[in-house]
Amino acid sequence: MGRMTASPGRRVLLAAPRGYCAGVDRAVIAVEKALEQYGAPVYVRHEIVHNKYVVQTLEKKGAIFVERTEEVPEGNIVMFSAHGVAPVVHEEAARGKLATIDATCPLVTKVHKEAVRFAKEDYDILLIGHEGHEEVIGTSGEAPDHITLVDGPEDVAKVEVRDPSKVVWLSQTTLSVDETMETVDALKNKFPGLISPPSDDICYATQNRQIAVKKLAEDAQLVIVVGSKNSSNSIRMVEVALDAGAPAAHLVDFADEIDEAWLEGVTTVGLTSGASVPDVLVEGVLEWLAERGYGDVETVKTAEESITFSLPKELRRDLREEAAALVAGRKGTSAE
Which of the residues 101, 133, 135, 154 could staple to 83 if both were Cys, CB 3.0 to 4.6 A apart? Predict the structure, then answer.
């Protein structure tokens, strides 16, 4: 670590809240607890959360990340990521004789349940989200015959429904609030009878971090968002900062990805991080900035967060024994 200094007029505005949300914290702890309780390996379908550092750290502890359920050898434990999975994935795990741990964020589970309920009531469901994102794939899988993906306002013109009086919108939890509402407004113009979900689908943490980054953008000439390139909520924060008037905003995984040229003429740097980012990475950026004269750090607080989620119920069972039983044929289905 280099010597920390502060040059006159140079400062960092540090967003609060930032970093881990309750769903990410729960998912990461779940992998650690599973490794501690059952021993390695514990397989995880897709990245548990979208952060390079977190995934690499868990791999060193014995987690194995796979893209497909079929890659997990029978008789093992597989964990489903915070982004959620479609029902077909649970079926794949049962066929593969795998014990399962479902680390889906409870806020994503809420959207899944909304999709199931509206599908049972025979609504057309317009799911606002990004094509190919794991969360969208999981939610769409709950009611594939009823869900149409709407990937932004530009998609609205081509949306067709069976009955304009029975249409509801849902959304991916990690989107830009402003862009989502722009899409909703366009949908309502086309379908005046469109109904909204009973509560916000965009998660509290995503909204809070976007509000905080808007506040940074009021005073910072440069906004740095710590987060991975495949993190939807982190990417949205960069976009929100630019839309809110920041002259420049960049996404980095680590401090050594910062280009010193970005600091030219900059007296105030705004710093925040995505909902899947541990604070150690933010501390690394603060040290990097301090070594270059930005040692004066002011916290900009826009919200309090106190939400926590209990760990997956499967961690209270002996999953190694259940997996062995599945292979031996003593049980016909995977753990609930």
Answer: 135
> In this predicted model, what pLDDT tens digit does every residue of 69-79 receive, in sequence order?
999 999 999 99
pLDDT in tens, 56-104: 999 999 999 999 999 999 999 999 999 999 999 999 999 999 999 999 9
Distance CA 13, CA 163 (A): 50
Give the orientation angle of helix 177-190 with respect to helix 204-217, to 10 degrees: 110
Q: CA 115, 101, 69: angle at the middle one, nearest 5?
A: 80
- Alpha-carbon distance 56 to 253, whole Å? 12
DSSP-based three-state secondary structure for 160: coil
- Based on its alpha-carbon atoms, the radius of gyration of the chain, rounded to whole angstroms, reads 22
Q: Which of 299, 336, 297, 296 is nearest to 319 (CA)?
A: 336
Between CA 211 and CA 258 the distance in angstroms is 24
Contacts (Cβ under 8 Å, ≥6 apart) of 51: 227, 228, 231, 253, 274, 276, 277, 278
Q: Which two tokens stand for residue 208?
A: 């809070």
> What is the rounded distance in angstroms from the CA atom of residue 67 to the CA atom of residue 137?
13
- In this structure, what token pair is assigned to residue 152? 């932004």
Q: For residues 189 and 164, what is the distance between their CA atoms, to the nearest angstrom?
A: 12
Query: Looking at the annotation, which residues are catalytic?
Result: 135
Q: What are phi and psi of 42, to 5 degrees?
A: -120, 120
CA-based torsion, 259, 262, 268, 270: positive or negative: negative
In the Cβ-directed half-sphere of 146, how many Cα atoms lie within 13 Å? 22
Q: 277: exposed, middle or buried (C-beta count within 10 Å: 0-12, 13-18, 19+)? A: buried
- H/E segment holding residue 124: strand 124-128
Check: CB of residue 294 under 8 Å from CB of residue 11. yes
